[in-house]
Amino acid sequence: MTDNNSMKDFMDQIDNSMKRIVKGQMVEGEVVSVTEEDVLVSIGHMKDGIIPKEKATFDMSKSLKEQFNLGDIIKAYVEVEDDGEGKILLSKVKLDRESSWDELQRLHNTQEIFEVTVKEAVKGGATTELYGVRAFIPASQLSMSYVEDISAFVNKVLKVKLIELNKDNRRVILSAKEVERDELSKKMDNLWESIDDKYRVGDIVETKVVKLLKFGAIVKLEEGVEGLVHNSQISDDRVMNPGDYLKEGQDIKVKILTIDKVQKKISLSYKEAVAKEQSTEFRKYAKNEDFGTTLGDMFGDKFKDIFK
């Protein structure tokens, strides 16, 4: 029984090896040799399949020996039935590229964050490669900050999201800006969650004026934490234009009036901080200043006699 099965398997192998291989056919085989230039695959045919490096991998920066091992089972498409040297020319990249769109669709659906290396600066943005598919990062999506020199991003590793995908047009759009925005949002959530540990109503704090509006001034307490100084809290005078009292970039002290953790809002007073500072300075002055002769100096112990 065993001998019969072995003979049958042997005859099946011979039959398979004699079957015609055609261009476009998908074959599966075992890696039997790996060199710097190509991968040799036994596909159960009288001819072995050979995969040149450019058709074996998307990552040309690594050697084939780093990416393939003897005994690996791989699938590939037939590109040429006979390369003229008795081998069948195969392409693994072509097969992988087709399955890449399934992975790209998954990344788009889940909005998963992943890393890419920027390959080239082009008009309007930068390009990279994702599962063998060319992807584009518009200049407006490279960073939350204004991008002046796109070439400065070449060879940089960026955390990105896949924000637009169209297989028919082979359109793959990535965004690093979205990731930065999400990370900043999480950081701010954590910061505001513990805001009471750092700031309290009544505190006088150092801030910087970052923007002047018709109704007041926006000041920065620290990165991610800003507050409003309403016109009514800039001066006791009627303030029609905050720019008459404050300038963008100016460092000022303010008093914290209210903190709203839910709305992430802090209301502040410039005039109360100034008043408190002036009051403190006056007390220091009064304490240290010599105002001259006092009544006690003039009458000495005579007051004691009066009240005996």
From TrEMBL:
GO process annotations (BP): translation
Gene Ontology molecular-function annotations: mRNA binding; structural constituent of ribosome
Domain S1 motif: 24-93, 111-177, 202-271
Keyword Ribonucleoprotein (UniProt): yes
Record keyword Ribonucleoprotein present: yes
GO cellular component: ribonucleoprotein complex; ribosome
Alphabetical list of InterPro entries matching this protein: NA-bd_OB-fold (IPR012340), Ribos_protein_bS1-like (IPR050437), Ribosomal_protein_S1-like (IPR035104), S1_domain (IPR003029)
Keywords: Ribonucleoprotein, Ribosomal protein
Stated family: Belongs to the bacterial ribosomal protein bS1 family.
Function, as annotated: Binds mRNA; thus facilitating recognition of the initiation point. It is needed to translate mRNA with a short Shine-Dalgarno (SD) purine-rich sequence.
Name under which the protein is recorded: RNA binding S1 domain protein
Organism of this sequence: Clostridium cellulovorans (strain ATCC 35296 / DSM 3052 / OCM 3 / 743B)
